[in-house]
């Protein structure tokens, strides 16, 4: 598919995804608390500084406004019981040209209602930004170009993405570098579709007297990858970077070498505790690389600025000795990719994965039957079928193919036939991955055979 950018307006089908979990409190009163988290599904991190607004559904004039903190958390105290309308805004929303719709939330008297507001997921966003016809070997790259020291958008810069390609012609094969401009808008944002996912990409921004470093980016097929760029004066040397180098088990690595790619002679050696400090660096987005004997070189991106000290954490795996092998090149199916990602998540966060083989052996009548043997989960009879509950009979959050389902714990057997369930992930309490965060009562992810 050819590279292209699209300026998308008023995406009525997309917007803030809201998951509501009511946490009962003893001594119900007429007033309640409405709290939650704003989450950036593209960066897989909280959306710090987001403007969050709430108003009673019957009186939208009485709008209350708060700003999310550095962890994306927000809170409205002493709200009245009833239906409330919530929405949020952030520069990232403008970057993607989203017109965020409002959502209604029912607040019970005396309760604390927890709400997760998030941007649409990467795959869903990709379909909207780039169209349904996009091939499975390309993705989209989005981001914002900002001045590192003023922390303000920049539009008077040139930005581009580049990657190596093999060029065949005139009886020879040569490796060339393809360089494609990023369409930076007035607000400093850019969206580029059709970016190859099977190549090592490098992005960079530069302008009159300012530039970023060369930043390495990996774009996954069929989804959206976000990489912000900040620019500064290359000759200015007033930024500071600290960090730690550890192995993949969290142990510090001493005497490792940390360098700034693109700045000759700038590096530091870690102490016995794995810590390092680099002073007198130029502002902007730069790629750092850590090297140590017996370890695989590891890279990380740092946003350097005179406004704050940047921090980078490295996790360096050991070199894996392997035998020569025959490699069969093919495409990973959607089902295989989702299972691989689910296995990695459950290993990392201590969740439970119910695999296709286990589902086939159990031959469940309803999806809820798969959760009967999962520790920390209860399957109880409800008004229209089974419902699922966590410890203390609190209500867990339910996702279907990565999308949060409101009231999914009460409608789990109506969401999808048991025969269509490919795999199930279960996380107890608050240990779920941040992109599938719930309200502290556990998370259930259903994946279907697609």
Automatic annotation (TrEMBL):
It is a multi-pass membrane protein. GO terms for cellular component: cell outer membrane. Keywords: Cell outer membrane, Membrane, Receptor, Signal, Transmembrane, Transmembrane beta strand, Transport. InterPro entries: Carb-bd-like_fold (IPR013784), CarboxyPept-like_regulatory (IPR008969), Plug_dom (IPR012910), Plug_dom_sf (IPR037066), TonB-dep_rcpt-like (IPR039426). One of its GO terms (biological process) is siderophore transmembrane transport. The keyword Signal applies. Pfam families: CarboxypepD_reg, Plug. It is found in: Cell outer membrane. One of its GO terms (molecular function) is carbohydrate binding. This is TonB-dependent receptor plug. It comes from Gemmatirosa kalamazoonensis.
